[in-house]
Amino acid sequence: MPSLTAEKLxxxxxxxxDFLNQPDDEFNSVTDLAIHHNxxxxxxxxxxxxxxxxxxLNPAALEKWFEGIKVTGTPxxxxxxxxxxxxxVGFHDILCVLATGNTAVIKLSSSDNKLLxxxxxxxxxxxxxxxxxxxxxxxxxxxxxxxxxxxxxxSRYFDYYFGKVPNIIRKNRNSIAVLxxxxxxxxxxxxxxxxxxYFGLGCRNVSKIYLxxxxxxKNFFEPLEKFQPIINHFKYNNNYDYNKSIYLVNSAPHYDxxxxxxxxxxxxxxxxxxxxxxxxxxxxxxxxxxxxxxDNIQCVVTSTELQLESGIVTFGQSQHPALWxxxxxxxxxxxxxxx
Length: 339
What we know:
InterPro entries: Ald_DH/histidinol_DH, CoA_reduct_LuxC. Keywords: NADP. There is one protein chain. The protein starts with 5 loop residues before the first helix and ends with a helix. Helix 1 (6-21) packs across helix 6 (115-126). The protein is built from twelve helices and twelve strands. The protein folds into two domains: 6-172, Aldehyde Dehydrogenase, Chain A, domain 1; 174-313, Aldehyde Dehydrogenase, Chain A, domain 2 (3-Layer(aba) Sandwich), CATH 3.40.309. By secondary structure, it is an alpha/beta fold. The relative contact order is 0.13. The radius of gyration is 21 Å and the shape is globular. The protein has a seven-stranded mixed β-sheet, sandwiched between helices. It has a five-stranded parallel β-sheet with strand order 3-2-1-4-5, with helices on both faces.
């Protein structure tokens, strides 16, 4: 098998980034097909995902990332069970497997089985040696390690079936925002992207906000008006109508701006089209609370200084992870390098 050096991989990944600036007709036809296959994968959401990959795969970032990567001489088979909640959500995990010189044995999600193969076919055009390192499988077998992403429910099955091999098994996580009441209108408008991009379906989407006591809810709602067209998507609208009717029937207190329901709740994982909120008395108390919940939090969107180990991003940036922003704060490269 042809040798794959870090230099060759960097060149191939960067060529893919350039390609995504101006995809060819064949790739565009696949994106059209994906949109018809999955109604959540609207054109702007697919483009949003591709744009994120373009940013991620810039030359400076690739050089920095590869400084901590050793490309193995003997590739191991890494079984991969991918999620399908947002377009091409498993791409970063695949990059990690390929960057370490291993073979990605991929079980695609039925919700996202069009875009990723097309993206990886293009990558193989730029570096043909990767053709032997990318395998699609209906059933995983003969693997040396597993990376599996799913729900809290499916993670129990993953633990049962794959617990005896080295693994990364991901469960449900949610992202939150912390406001201090001093945010500008522009900050809240940017936070809207963290809430509404990909219709709020990603683990990096904000599903709950923490507000200082006495915060005026109108200061939060008004800057979000530009996201009102989200209600025109029939699946999102169905969720909005359903949750609104539940709250009305149960006389559950909530705020409603016509496309987002805001409900006070101690939970982290809000239903689609709903954003939970909770008031806090002091940042010190909130910080201690968040530290105790870190295993359930993907990232924290805030301009406030918090004493958390990682996962803090500025407004509007939750859906723009860098190459070294690993899901669940588990360094995938270190895991693969240790095999």
